[in-house]
Amino acid sequence: SEKSRPGLLDGLDPEQRAAASAPRGPVCVLAGAGTGKTRTITHRIAHLIAAGHVSAGQVLAVTFTTRAAGEMRTRLRGLGIDAAQALTFHAAARRQLRYFWPRVVGDRPWDLLDNKFRLVAQAATRVRLSTETEVLRDLASEIEWSKASLVSPEDYPAVAARTQRDTPAPAAQVAEVYRQYEEIKTSAQLLDFDDLLLHTTAVLEEHEAVATEFRDRYRCFVVDEYQDVTPLQQRLLDAWLGGRDDLTVVGDANQTIYSFGGASPRPLLEFTRRFPEATVIRLERDYRSTPQVVSLANQVIGAARGRPAGSRLKLVGQRAPGPEPRFAEYEDEAAEAAAAARRVRELLDGGATASEIAVLFRINAQSEAYEQALTEAGIPYLVRGGERFFARSEVRQAMSALRVASGDPTGPDLVTAVRSALAKVGLTEQPPAGGAAKERWDALLAIVELAEELAASVAEADLPRFVAELDQRAAAQHPPTVEGVTLASLHAAKGLEWDAVFLVGLSEGTMPILHADGDEAAIEEERRLFYVGVTRAREHLSLSWSLSRTPGGRRNRRRSRFLYGLIPEDHPAARIARSQGKPAAGVTARCRLCGGPLLETMEVKLGRCSRCPSTVDEGLLEKLKAWRGERSRELKVPAFVVFTDATLMAIAEQRPTDDGAL
Ligand code: ATP
Ligand code: MG
């Protein structure tokens, strides 16, 4: 019944089409990875515009990472829509604040804080707390969590007590650091990232005229990856809506990966409670990945505990079969990275494009080994940290150097002017060996390449024009990219896809991250992160891990618990029988599968069989002991421990095992 551009909805399946063509009003799409949620919302935007319901300029689409926002813009452009805004929550708020600030505060907006740590350190010093890096990091993330959760310094102690938060210091002291941090920041007239959202919300909530103007301008809101919304972002969204209901949300509760930062899938899962008349659509066909990848993804998330109702959809693969996922174990990280680089080279030689390949890791520190291995193999890769490209100090220095140079009307041509300006801020002819220096160099080179691009595409490209282009990109948080293999953290990879994905460093302590051990909620979040990683691959998926960090170092790492049950039985890695670690003192447990003595590796607090690849994590053993009324620290559990995944699952769910062991 809707009139729309012919063919606009052709590329959608019936459920996707129903969501895309639903009338104006609340729409919610709940579905797994790769089912076309992002595709559906971009088509919905296109459809609403084509059908004349809204103009492109009245649409505001938001998501959580810069890359995902970039991806949305690319897809919208593919549908012929340039004017719709697709931004991160932060970029949208920043833009709005810049526009409204002069009117409500009467000055230009405050600058963004570029070194949060320094301020937290000052605040901690005032409160006489330790300024060790680790403590500061914990305090900084606690402040971030509080702001994202709309918890003020005054409320913090009570909230921390009520929710039994694991606070980095006594709650009253954390609250005081938080208060001091806010005070120092305000008196220096600086804003942190969360302030962008807080201030924008406050402006809209408190200034009627501004809110009216805003709501007149924006009429249609779309949120991708809605499972990761924080209370603060939800409040901003509500301020945007101002009681209206023209809101489309899509998400997958199994991909909630920011709950440590205050995000919750609840607004997604309870969308119809708020909008009872909402159109709700579920999708389960996976268009992204081969059936092999889909089946692995289903296994990974099927093992998750405590999944909320509404998140238990199973993905059904739609694509033709492809290669089997590869599993591989290496002696150390360098060997693992070198092997990944070799495999990337093979794929490239086989006709793959570098930009269709990604190496994904848990923490940014892992990037270095891969940067080095790819550099040695002569393979180009993307500058890491694209998110904050324009916040980098060398980039800001470069921009001011360019600005100064652009004041000289008799300057040389652009490909030369840019190079000579950037030489002043550290762009050398040859790249430095690696590490932070190489990263800075890459960032500067990306600017040069952007200038080359502009010079090639525009006849009268000059320096002022280039500076304007950079300013525009900075405002849109649209960093320049180098063509190459993507190196990214799993968090930054959300919503994206590549033909070939390397999930690396799948060892205990890294994936799941060490501090998640023993905390079930944290382990489940790590599992979802792993699921996000697996579901990024269209065809080739490689999963690897290494036994030691340094070449010839102690082999004190173990493969990730998430891999058990995934590795095919006949794979060499499934049969490893290396003895590793030493029998834990006082332990009488034996593996019922093969009778081998249980070993305990202190670093990862895991019990493991010395002969077969069975494992049991300490959390489960603790539970077992509790049920048996055992008080002893000794693991006297040989009578009923069968270390198979099926048994572990049965134990976790407190039901009898198949062989009646419990
Ligand atoms: P994620 O949860 O990872 O964000 P998603 O649900 O947003 O995934 P999309 O990225 O929109 O999924 O789609 C995954 C891939 O499948 C994309 O390459 C998309 O173009 C393709 N796709 C989606 N729907 C269809 C369809 N009906 N026909 C063909 N291809 C499709
Ligand atoms: Mg998506």
From TrEMBL:
Domain of life the protein comes from: Bacteria
In this protein, which residues make up the domain named UvrD-like helicase ATP-binding? 10-290
What protein family is recorded? Belongs to the helicase family. UvrD subfamily.
One Pfam family of this chain: UvrD_C
Catalytic class of the enzyme: isomerase
GO BP, one annotated term? recombinational repair
UvrD-like helicase C-terminal domain span: 291-539
Catalytic activity, as annotated: Couples ATP hydrolysis with the unwinding of duplex DNA by translocating in the 3'-5' direction; ATP + H2O = ADP + phosphate + H(+)
- Organism, by scientific name, is Amycolatopsis saalfeldensis
Q: Specify which residues bind ATP according to the UniProt entry for this protein.
A: A31, G32, A33, G34, T35, G36, K37, T38
Q: What is its EC number?
A: 5.6.2.4
- GO molecular-function annotation terms? 3'-5' DNA helicase activity; ATP binding; ATP hydrolysis activity; DNA binding
The entry's protein name is DNA 3'-5' helicase
Q: Which residues form the HRDC domain?
A: 614-662
Q: Disordered: where is this region?
A: 1-20
GO cellular component terms attached to this protein's record: cytosol; DNA helicase complex
Report the PROSITE patterns cross-referenced here.
HRDC, UVRD_HELICASE_ATP_BIND, UVRD_HELICASE_CTER
PANTHER family registered for this protein in UniProt: ATP-DEPENDENT DNA HELICASE UVRD2, UVRD / RECB / PCRA DNA HELICASE FAMILY MEMBER
Q: Which UniProt keywords apply?
A: ATP-binding, Helicase, Hydrolase, Isomerase, Nucleotide-binding
